[in-house]
Amino acid sequence: SESLQVGELAKKLNKETSEIIKKLMGLGIMATINQELDKEAIELIAADYDVEVEEEIIIDETEFENYEVVDDEKDMQVRPPVVTIMGHVDHGKTTLLDAIRNTKVTAGEAGGITQHIGAYQITNNGKVITFLDTPGHAAFTTMRARGAQVTDITILVVAADDGVMPQTVEAINHAKAAEVPIIVAVNKMDKEAANPDRVMQELTEHGLVSEAWGGDTIFVNVSAIKGDGIDDLLEMINLVSEVEELKANPNRTAIGTVIEAQLDKGRGSVATLLVQSGTLKVGDPIVVGHTFGRVRAMVNDLGRRVKSVGPSTPVEITGLNDVPQAGDQFMVFADEKKARQVGESRSKKQQDAQRKESSKLNLDDLFNQI
Ligand code: GTP
Ligand code: MG
Question: What is the predicted ipTM?
Fold first, then answer.
């Protein structure tokens, strides 16, 4: 804050209010105890006591925490759904996403295991869908634990020959806790041992009852490898997303969440962001978690340079002073000075917290040695 009352200043300096009032009078300022002092007056008095004034920047953290920024209903426009594919190891998450994209991510991955969260967009019948490919459920869990809600729909992949496994159940629990609708993709239908009825039966025990059995969970039989059932699955995603009435205001400064981030030798800090509301533009002053900067360049999921992206769009940005974490929220500011202030304040807070944590650890180590 830029101003302080006389009484408050006296308290901060550990002096009598009357003494401060006298000093102010000496400076030609007639003041009462409740008088607001401007920055200049505060600095003059402080200098007189040999005290350095450190400006305290008050950051409205609720701006960050309160994700559901209230927008006028008339500004809201339909946005693409953000879909997360979850399921047990090897049940075919990446292969399914490949089938959807018609590309070969699996072939390029080391050992065929998902190394990072990819975020991609496809268009089906003129409607855009955003997909997140998660390595297991770690990313989903980390993001949720950090207060970020990025997923609109979960595709639960269950291999028809393997059935419900521990991570299938975990995925169901995550989706339920986040109140995200689930579409079940019964995969590997091409296999001889495929038994979709068994999958339905097992999922019933976890509260997912197929529409065919009088429940309200959508089941789609697919073969990711053969490409069977993919169109049906996409159709169902469009249907669920219509029911959910997903909307955002594209005409505001962008907010959203970090999907992944790393340090790149050539480009510095590189972060994949999911814009959740507003439009993100090159040149925007931005705070991302405890990092900040100006959006230097943006690259979309096809590796193409873009100048601006709207809601539900994943984009890779450069220009941050440091590497943020997955699940961090980002926010664009009207001017760079404000972004820097907020960024530096958050960075300092984070460092303080880390220092506290490490000194605690040191003490613990000490006690353990005794
Ligand atoms: P993680 O990322 O390690 O959790 O695995 P994932 O769920 O992404 O599975 P992935 O797509 O890597 O597939 C695992 C194995 O199952 C691979 O050998 C795939 O070729 C195979 N697979 C995936 N979908 C199908 C399918 O529809 N039919 C058959 N027969 N095999 C499939
Ligand atoms: Mg995978």
Answer: 0.99
- Please list all protein residues whose beta carbon sits less than 5 angstroms from ligand 2, which is an ion: 93-94, 114
Q: Assign residue 229 a region (left: φ > 0; alpha: ψ between -120 and 50; beta: otherwise).
A: left
- Here the tokens at position 161 are 């020959």
What would the DSSP string read from start to end of 9-50? HHHHHT--HHHHHHHHHHTT----TTPEE-HHHHHHHHHHTT
Give tens-digit pLDDT for 248-276: 999 999 999 998 899 999 989 999 999 99
In this structure, the residue with its CA closest to atom 22 of ligand 1 is 92
For 357, left (φ over 0), alpha (ψ -120 to 50), or beta?
Answer: alpha
Could you tell me the pTM of the whole model?
Answer: 0.77
pLDDT at 117 over 80: no
Where do the H-state alpha helices sit in 93-133? 93-101, 105-108
346 — pLDDT class (breaks 50, 70, 90): confident
Closest C-alpha among 317, 300, 307, 304 to residue 264: 317
313 — phi, psi (to 5°)?
Answer: -105, 130
Q: For a substitution probing ligand 1, which of 88, 90, 105, 190 has the most ligand atoms within 8 Å of its CB? A: 90
